[in-house]
Amino acid sequence: MLRLFSSNRLALAGAVCSLLASMPATSSVNAAELPAQKYIPAAIAVKFAEAAIQACRSEGYGVTAVVVNTEGNVIVQIRGDGARVQTVETARNKAYSAVTLAANHNLDLTSGILASMQAKGAVGVGTWPMPPASSTGITLFAGGVNLRSNGEVVGALGVSGTPNGKLDEGCALKARDAVGGML
């Protein structure tokens, strides 16, 4: 019995070796065929966040600014002087919502998501067209702005900390206008 088991193992090993030997040694995918994806370098992401914080600071508000990539992953997060603890998560959610949900509605700002969803007949809880169970990272508050390079979304900036989301959005737009030419 032991000898039969050893023979079967040898036969299986031989079959695997034959299969591997028949496969091409190099991949058939050429690097030129792979899609190129634009991204926001960390140094520029820092400039966006700093510009947003400064824009709000000049109005008397301490805010947090977060820049995410197209997948919603944080590139940089800066909590400005005087920004409250809840602003960190809210700013991230605004950036994430801009790059995911707002982009799905062909919008650049989170402030337009609610109206767009309602216009398309979305149903949800009360006047909020969202499912009863929360979706992690999604918010409908103003303050998230998509960042583009040659018309292509490459990330988003979220700002939180003023008493009104429209003020957050204004700071994000000022930052986008000031730094956007670097993309």
Report strand %.
5-15%
According to DSSP, the number of beta strands is 4
Broad CATH class of the largest domain: Alpha Beta
Question: In the CATH hierarchy, what is the architecture of the largest domain at level 2?
Answer: 2-Layer Sandwich
Calculate Rg over CA atoms: 24 Å
Instruction: Summarize the biggest pleated sheet.
Output: 4 strands, antiparallel
What is the molecular shape?
elongated
Whole-Å distance between the termini? 69 Å
Q: What is the CATH fold-level name of the largest domain?
A: Beta-Lactamase
SSE run: HHEEHHEEH
Low-confidence stretches: none
Walk me through what this model shows.
With 183 residues, the chain is an alpha+beta fold. The chain has two domains: 2-33; 42-182, Beta-Lactamase, CATH 3.30.450.150. It is 43% helix and 14% strand. Strands 2-1-4-3 form a four-stranded antiparallel sheet. Strand 1 and strand 2 form a beta hairpin. The longest helix has 21 residues, at 2-22.
Question: Can you give keywords for this protein?
Answer:
14% strand; 183 residues; alpha+beta; 5 helices; Beta-Lactamase
List the helices and strands and how they pair.
Blueprint: H1 2-22, H2 42-57, E1 64-68, E2 74-79, H3 86-104, H4 113-119, E3 144-149, E4 152-160, H5 165-179
Antiparallel strand pairs: 1-2, 1-4, 3-4
